[in-house]
Each structure stands twice: as C-alpha cells, then as structure tokens.
Amino acid sequence: MTKQQANWSPYDNNGGTCVAIAGADYCVIADDTRMSTAWLQHPYSADKSMMASSGFLADVRALQKALAARHLIYQHQHNKQMSCPAMAQLLSNTLYFKRFFPYYAFNVLGGLDSEGKGCVFTYDAVGSYERVGYSAQGSGSTLITPFLDNQLKTPSPLLLPAKDSVTPLSELEAIDLLKTSQGNVQMLNVNLSPIPVNLMFVLHGDKLEIVILNSTGTRREYMDLRLD
User: Fold this and answer.
1) Cα–Cα dist 31/135, whole Å
2) Residue 85's CB: how many other CB atoms inside 10 A?
3) Distance (Å, rounded) from C-alpha 79 to C-alpha 45?
4) Whole-angstrom Cα distance, residue 181 to residue 224?
5) Which pLDDT score is estimated for 41?
6) Which residue is catalytic, options 17, 122, 154, 167?
7) Is 2 annotated in the active site?
8) What value does the mean pLDDT of the chain take?
C-alpha cells in the first residue's frame, strides 16, 4: 500500500521577471505584468526610487505595504523624501526582520543617489543586498543575467581602486537593451500554470512596463509581449 502524505506550503512562486540598469544620470527598470498563478504585478515607487519584485504575490503586497508605511513615517519626521540608498537600507532591514519566516519576494531597487547618479540594488529573500550596475530577478533571471553580463561587462567590486558600477550606455540604449532582453526571454520563459495559457495572457495583461528615472522626473513606457 502506498503511503500518502498531505503536503502544504505557505508559499507559492507566482513568477514574473524584473530587470534594472543604472546609468550615469538615469535608472531604467523593466517589469513584466504577467504572473503565472496570480494577478498583475506592479512596482512600488517613491519619488527617487522604484522597487520591482517577483516571487509570491501575497508577500510582495505585504512588503510593499510595510515599506509604504515606513516611508510615510519618514516623510512626516524629516519633511523630505527618502533617498534611494536610504530606501535600499530600509528594504534590507525590513527583509532581515522577517528572516525566520521571510517574505518570499526577490527584489530589485533602482533610482538616483544624492549625486544624481543611477543606482541599482539587488536583494535575496532575507535582506542581503549589493549596489550593482544592473540586476535581474525572477523566473527569467537565469536567462537575462548572462545576456546582460555579455553586453555590459560591469567591473568586479573586488578590483582596487574601485571602479564605478554604472553602465556606459545612454538612456535610449539601455531602454532598447531591456526591451530586447525581456522580449526574447519571455518567449523562452514558460511557467506552468493551473489556468490555460491563452486565458492567462488575457487576464494578466501580457505587457512589459518600463520605468525611467532621471533628473527631469519619472516616466513610464509599455511594450506588448508575444504579439506573434
């Protein structure tokens, strides 16, 4: 007789892929609006930073809610917006506080620092983070990261003297690179879903949302995926 066990997990991986590139005076973040077993995903934003997340949608929403509350308290106490490096540290502290029952969310935070340079911070689920020139998280990250490594070739952080991690691309070149990488990866990145694939694409928007932060402000662009 086969022994049967009832397995249950509080987590689910709803997929999604997010990518960010930092330039000399800009930061570009791209996030697909599709999630394989849940709803739309949208990045959390402040005036000087933007966070894109993948993983378990419920934990992503809870994390965004916690960050929004802490950001509001900061604005009331200091009468100013939180900078991107400060938001990066806040996100790290928030994730580490939940390390024994972590948020199943994998995050990329991008924005502009106090000098106006683009910055990207990449995280694991328990708050370890690093400032990099580019990063990818989510179900398509293993496909996008080698492509970005080949195209951008950011210097190692172990080199002395330290070199700037921002990419040499212009803003338009970085946007085109993200569109190319996300468009190609989404053709290959197939997530198993309990609902039919054609229905999933109709319900979940099937678009690429691109957020550009620079000295003039923030703007958004959208690109349709899988039009073929």
Assistant:
1) 12
2) 18
3) 18
4) 14
5) 43
6) 17
7) no
8) 79
